[in-house]
Amino acid sequence: MSDLPDLQLHGDLPELDSPILVVALKGWIDAAEAAAEAVSAIESQMDPFPLASYNTDVFIDYRARRPTMEIRDGRNTHLEWPSIDMYSGHDANGRDIVLLTGSEPDSAWHRFAAATAELCRRLGVTMMVGLGAYPFPTPHTRPSRLSATTPSQELVQRFAFLRTSVDVPAGMGAVLEHSLTGVGIPSITLWAQVPQYLPSMSYPAASVALLDGLTEVCGLQFDRRSLEQEAIIQRDRLDRLVSRNAEHAEMVGKLEAAFDASQQQPLPLEPGPEPLTESDIPTPDELAAELEAFLRDSNPDTPN
Fold first, then answer.
1. How many CA atoms lie less than 13 Å away from 226 in the CB half-sphere?
2. What does the DSSP 8-state code read for residue 276?
3. SS3 of the chain: helix, strand, coil, percent, to 5
4. Mean pLDDT, range 53-69, rounded to an integer
């Protein structure tokens, strides 16, 4: 298939039954790497089969995403290059899935989107679902909510995800939404909310929410029990950490009140919680230091 010069196909394209394309490219908004964790769970269960690799000499700026050099006893033994790949596989019910992962392209976005749309057309892809996550003033004691972006008014009306009106920088996922919609493939991206006061750690509750969103939007199902267990453990640790600091407990209480109020119509003349300011929310570095100390105190056998 020489008419797709930006792709290296790994053999003939398989015959798939109405596959769903799941997109999660590294390099754009993925707070706490919630989308990456969700994709990791998907990859571990879908038995991925390589379909195609993108020409990274065209799409990647190696000065921004340098290859990793493995040095062993002073010898340069291997270079690990950034990659963008597409795989096929199945969900828990045997439904066909196509997964696009790797680094978000740095250049030639129109070219990348056109190549992806044509490959999806040939594979018979029936829908694209992107995954992402963003920091938001929401408490860890409440479920991680999902918002969505899509060019399709029909999809906006079909699903009751959070909606907003704002102008923000776009990632490749947004470009793919338009490119695939243009060739008749409905496209939507799901975004999980991650508490903005958390340090740079994983947040499995958001990953669970994204897997739930996949099921709601297109019926794909994957075992999420491991992520749910991680979320329970993390919730317990964060609860104990917050309970040790009155200011943090007050902050979480305000976030809970705001979350609960947003879930229902407020009563007339009912006083709401005082709004939070930036100073009310600890920075990730502050909470990271406290969490490190908390975990050290909780595990006295851990060396200092």
1. 9
2. P
3. 40, 20, 40
4. 96
pTM of this structure? 0.86
CATH pick for 7-224 out of 3.40.50.10900, 3.40.50.11540, 3.90.1140.10, 3.30.365.10: 3.40.50.10900
3-state secondary structure of 231: helix
Helix (H) or strand (E) holding 158: helix 153-158
Identify the residue whose tokens are 């902050």: 251
> Cβ distance 225 to 169 under 8 Å?
no
Region of 73 on the Ramachandran plot (φ > 0 left; ψ -120 to 50 alpha; else beta): left
Q: Which amino acid is at 127?
A: M
Which amino acid would we find at residue 85? Answer: D
- List pLDDT tens digits, range 124-150: 999 999 999 999 989 999 999 999 999
Residue type, 257: A
Q: Of 106, 25, 101, 28, nearest to 61 (Cα)?
A: 106
Instruction: Please state, in angstroms and rounded to a whole number, the distance separating the CA atoms of residues 125 and 117.
Output: 9
Strands 68-72 and 96-103: unpaired
Cβ atoms < 10 Å from Cβ of 122: 11
Domain boundaries along the sequence of the chain: 7-224, 230-298
The residues near 106 (Cβ < 8 Å, ≥ 6 apart) are 59, 60, 61, 64, 65
Token duo for residue 287: 């909470």
The answer, yes or no, to whether residue 36 has pLDDT greater than 50, is yes
Half-sphere exposure of 244 (CA within 13 A, CB side): 14
3-state secondary structure of 28: strand
Mean pLDDT of 106-126: 97
